Amino acid sequence: MRALPALLLAARADAVQSGHSGVAHPRTGPEISDFALFACAAIGVWLVRRALRARFRKD
């Protein structure tokens, strides 16, 4: 049981180190993930506005 926290910390440190090569590449334009994030945010705003309009609608 005592080795479990040490194993978890070692696994986490390895995952952080392997996540980036250390070389920064110049940005040439928006990535596909940028468009996907914008689309998700727009859909979220649309859903919230629709829900609030339905909630405060006076019949």
Helix-strand blueprint:
Layout (H helix, E strand, L loop, with lengths): L2 H15 L14 H25 L3
Write a brief caption for the model.
With 59 residues, the chain is mostly helical. 68% of the residues lie in helices and 0% in strands.
Detailed description of the structure:
The protein has helices at 3-17, 32-56. The model has no long low-confidence stretch (mean pLDDT 81). 68% of the residues lie in helices and 0% in strands. It has 59 residues and is mostly helical. It starts with a helix and ends with a helix.
Shape summary:
flat
The portion of residues assigned to helices is 55-70%
Q: How far apart, in Å, are the first and last alpha carbons?
A: 62 Å
In DSSP terms (H or I, runs of 4 or more residues), the helix count works out at 2
Helix/strand class: mainly alpha
Average of pLDDT: 81
